[in-house]
Amino acid sequence: MKPIEGFPLPEGKCLKLVKSAYGLVQAPRQYYLLCKEVYAKCKLTQLKSDQCVFIRRVQNIKGQPALTSEDIIARGSLEYTERVPKSKRVYPSCEFPVAMLIIFMYVDNNGCRYNCRELLDEFLNDLKEDGRIDMNEEGKMENYLAVRYTQDPITGAIEADQEPYMDGLFKKYDMENCNPTKLPLKPTDIDAIERIPIPAKPSPQHVRAYSMMVGELMYVAINTVPSIMFHVQFLARYMSKATSQHLEYPKKILRYLKGQKSRRIRWDANAVKHPFVAGQVHAFADSSWADEVPRRRSTFAYHLFVNNAAFSWKSALAPILALSSAEAELIGLASCAQEVAFVRKLSFELGFQQPGPTICQTDSKGAKLNVENGHFKGRSKHYELKWSFVCDYHDRGIMSIDWRPRATNVSDIGTGARPLEVFNRFVPILLGERTAAMP
Question: Does 322 map to a domain?
């Protein structure tokens, strides 16, 4: 560190950093390393798939040997219904054979999930004894990073929404009394935006106002409202070249949110229907073809589901130009496969084994055949090597590809602005209000 002006140091001397503070380049890493060291001292194990997640599992049956990772693998899953009588419990508050504590970090915000109050109290006491991290228990995840999480005490179902955050946006943009709309953006709105003239030097004021509004909508789209993911990422294409005409379109999405703010994503293991089981991940993937103007790249989307609702989703432009719809669909499947691989690793470390390959559903028979056969010849001979890794995942049993018609492919909602009938067909499925019918 350099000394401040007026306080020169003797030659050959430097300042020693006693404590990292906000604003210093090394502060985030120093905080992470501190948490890693302290949490390990508190008997938590850091996950390899996500290094911001720490977990502790403890045997909760008296007289049984200590729990190991091999025991979890031998079970095949932590999905079980057995309950432990109070007289046989190590921890009275936990009725399950395995007591668990999970700590997850986002910058300097820590979240916690547990099924055993004693483990949490032990963790907080260990932190207090160590003295290097001050942590306060502030609630039951009612407001974690502007997302409200609630849990049904009877069924265990988890719900998430951002109604308070949305109310703040309505107030900020003087839209508290606006009339809600049924669609975020209509197909005609997309065409109108693409026809807006782009000036050589956009107004900094318009760019700043537009970027702020789209960024705030993006935070809603990636957390709790997957139905607006396409519309927000489409608007984000104009972040650096927005005009006064562009400003009206983010407000249209706000008007849609006005009528949707009380709807929640609900993950309920009891609502899972055949052929899937509780805790099993499955996915949808889709892609348009050459819809971007003027470069003609394709928009792909995927949605991962667990316990009857979406929990991970994406809508984005393909990094390369696809020469056919099958190639565009394969790019979407490849992106989905990357997320599937990560989720399977995370699920495995948490103790929830996946029963067989993860099913990914697409409406492209050409892409499905390419993945299953791995035969890139003729019109597919130019496909980039990195897309063919999906074939390897298929051959290794990590994922399997199922075909379903476009009318029932949920990810179609992430590849373009859809009419009201199509839009309303898929939104309840994303939120867990209705189960997707199998083809």
Answer: yes
